[in-house]
Amino acid sequence: MNIEEFRDYCLAKPAVSETFPFDEVTLVFKVAGKMFALTSLDKEFSMNLKCDPERAIELREEYPAIQPGYHMNKKHWNTVYADGSIKDDLLRELIDHSYELIVKSLTKKVREEYHL
């Protein structure tokens, strides 16, 4: 997966927007206004994704390209380096997992408002 495929995959999800809330090079994807994925446009392609804490530990132990979230809460976020060592199917699964965690955290009212 490259950065364009990552962007397209994230934007294809319901109620997703892309923003640059931190600076001109940090692309952030939000669902209903809450961040679920981000990447830097000026560094080696990697993505920060929210993850269940127990699963995050398992993934980090199994895959060297998955590290504690850079500049994020390391308990809940992973940085995933797209260095070719992780198959695209797993990358899509991790993006989906991050998205679903955020959707679950939204109030019922917000989920209904965005048809989630």
TrEMBL record:
Keywords associated with the record: DNA-binding
Record flagged with keyword Transferase: no
InterPro entries: YjbR, YjbR-like_sf, YjbR/MT2646/Rv2570-like
Pfam families: YjbR (PF04237)
GO molecular function terms listed in the Swiss-Prot or TrEMBL record: DNA binding
Regions annotated as coiled coil: none
Protein's UniProt keywords contain Magnesium: no
Protein name as catalogued: MmcQ/YjbR family DNA-binding protein
